What we know:
heterotrimer, A: mainly alpha, ABC transporter involved in vitamin B12 uptake, BtuC, two-stranded antiparallel ribbon, B: mainly alpha
Amino acid sequence: MDLNYIFGILTLAGINLMSVLGLSLLTGFTGMFSFGHAGFMAIVGYTSAMMTVKFGLPFIPALLIGGLIAALVSSIIGKLTLNLKGDYFCIATLGFGEAIRLILDNVQYFGGARGWPGIPHHTQLLNVVIINIVAIIVLANIVRSKHGRNMIAVREEELASQIVGINVFKYKLISLMISAAYAGIAGGLMAHYMTFLQPKMFSLVKSTELTIIVIFGGLGSISGSVLGALVLTSLPEILRTFSEWRLVIYGLSVVIIMITRPSGLMGGYEFTPSSMKKLFARMKNKNKGLPNQMEGGKTV
Amino acid sequence: MSQFLQQLINGLSIGSVYALMAVGYSLVYSIMNFSNFAHGGVIMLGAYFGYYYLTAAGLPFPAAFIGAALTTCLLAVIIERGAYKPLRERKAPFLYFIISAMGTSIFLENMVIATIGPTFRTYPEILSRTPIQIGSVSVGRLDLTMFIISAICLALLVFFIDHTKMGKAIQATAYNIKASALMGINTDLVIIVVFALGGFFAGIAGVLFGMKYTVYPQIGIITNKSFIAAVFGGLGSLPGAVIGSILLGIIETITSGYFSSQYRDLIAFVLLIAVLVFRPSGLMGKVTEDKA
Amino acid sequence: MNILELKNLTKTFGGLTAVGNVDFEVPKDGISGLIGPNGAGKTTIFNLITGVYKVTDGRIIFKGQDITNMEPYKIAGSGITRTFQNIRLFKKLTVYENVLTACHANANYSLLESVVRTIKCRKQEKELKEKADNLLEIMGLYDRKDLIANNLPYGLQRRLEIARALALNPELLLLDEPAAGMNPDETVQLMTLIAEIRPKFNLSVLIIDHHMDLIMGICEKIMVLNFGCKLAEGTPQEIQNNPKVVEAYLGVEG
């Protein structure tokens, strides 16, 4: 197997991972489902390409500005829709994602439905990896902090969160904005990797795929999202000969996951230094024949 | 003016088909409180089944039509048993149902692509293409048929819901599923009936849709619009679904007629967002307050 | 000196008057009680005070400030916390996490500071953890801090809810049927707990409950509600001797 080929798969996985990390904050930790995040990818994919191609901006600044744009757009959507009940918010994101795609189909400046070729190839495995590492550290630090705990509380029991003094709307909005920024940056990475943009790359199917990866990896687990993105991106690529069946298997496996193990791969656990220590300690205790400590730890 | 009337008639006919699709969504939502995104896939398969019963099996049109509807009816129930019932049993949050529905929808659509292939198929001409003249407007025979069939189906549905024992059971379960179960209503059976009804109408709608346009695996996505119509009318309300659908059909046709057909699909999503922002419970939905 | 005043408080749902023209003052540093038959509107009053329901008419004054229809999280931030009739813990989180989350108001580091993990952030996190540990110890839950909240025995779940409410440094604590489902022994333990924490945390307390031994035992002032309206108010003695109250309500439970 050719090294370039492997790098290619890893780069794609990394691009997906960026979106998935953002969605993980929104869905896994704050408990809101979105079927429109491909829309944010599209927005920044196109605007970042516009910045590099038409204005000659360097790559990383274009990405960062794009991320900010995505966060801004999401804040408008958020102000309008975050007060809605969960499934209505879901539907609104669906509408948003599709609306973006349909608008882009009709904007000839960006090539419309036929697409926009000739975008410079800036995305390499190296910068994807670095960006993802930074993204993971940022996410992990947020989750560990009181802000992350507040988001988790919102996911668990919204009313109780209010009563405990948490500004639920503010945290939902922050979570949405960060997730949009991440998805946006992923979109920018994608544009400069494929060197080609087409609105149908950002359809409802893409949004759903992202949510599926988050669930597959396990809600509330960053390491789960990383694993999920790696597995679910590389597997279909490796099975490329069966590409038509890729989505068939996706669809079926989603249903199966929901029915059998909705807590996903990691079930809400994280690969952290302390959880690894606990795991080894428990394994050692089992071997020594000591009674197990009282069951604790997180489950979803 | 007669052009406007023309558009109105066209909108009415496509709206009535949307209504058939939308009631399926609304029924399921009223009982189970989730949006069954797999419905679009069932509608799509209805179109395919109708096509194959007509061409490959050589059945006469009425038989193919009913046959397709019965097949999708069965399919809907199978989907419920396979993808939703296990979730109900473990009392999963509603969002898991949505994911499962999405998964099913992706599965169905791509199963068709992978096996039969994505090429468009056209229904053979069943009705003559010459339109009928009513006053100053000409109505396509197909459009008229669509409208009449949809109207009959909806009327039958209303009769069923209001005047049969099972219909009343459905109303009760929609109001409060736990209480209904405690009153001795077999809610599991009610759910099966609701999905069967939705599936039956989905088949009819699919065939009609396929006859009007063409048959291709992505029909399911277009039918998302009927879901928007259901939201517009108020999720969970049957009259709302019908009114919302007809209005959507008319708005769409007028937009496409007076502005541009490219914006036809976009207008539906704009409408959706507008509804959600300004009146999320839709035209006829209930507004509920959370009890602490 | 009154910490909370309800003036002409009214809440209607469509045609139904759940709470009608209620006037009541909760004295500072005291333990007050709110009793009445089921459906009398007691929890509705709690919901109105904490901003969960919007007021139809009337005012709610807390520490001299009008908090009517303020957002729930702001009300919590201004010093009123509560527990729920049907226990709304973060059920899938651990005991520790339940309390630690609620401690958030004691730290003010921003999101950006949490990302970069500034010294201020780390220092405040440490303080939060100490506070959480402290609270758990006082409430006798420390040795179970890593258990999932849902797996706690019922009585301890109620205690955890109180602990969580205390994490916000409230001045007024609303307890909604804290003794529900408890046997006489547990009820006595709860009474002792409430009597202990009141001075320790400098609280004023308002309790809804049906256990008359609890209410008459520790409350200094009681309001009786019936069909959403105030039926009577006074000391436990006065309430027990009030013929209207006896007729409407008392004499059924011991």
